[in-house]
Amino acid sequence: MPRFxxxxxxxxxxFADDEGRELxxxxxxxxxxxxxxxxxxxxxxxxxxxxxxxVEVRNEHGQWVxxxxxxxxxxxxxxxxxxx
Length: 84
What we know:
It is built from one helix and five strands. The chain is α+β, with helices and mostly antiparallel strands.
């Protein structure tokens, strides 16, 4: 069974996955990466701690095979519209 590594970029921070996970396929690794990015994004982006979270997936040979990015883009109307 192939092993995949899920490195995380959270703003300027980088967290390398040294253990990895054995999964059936690249499709399974994609589902894991999407789930991880969504969970991290929900926790970090909602607090305003980061604007984007990226999960970079490597195979057992260290080759980059997949990237998932979750981001928040905010546009505030300035000046605020008058109250009705």
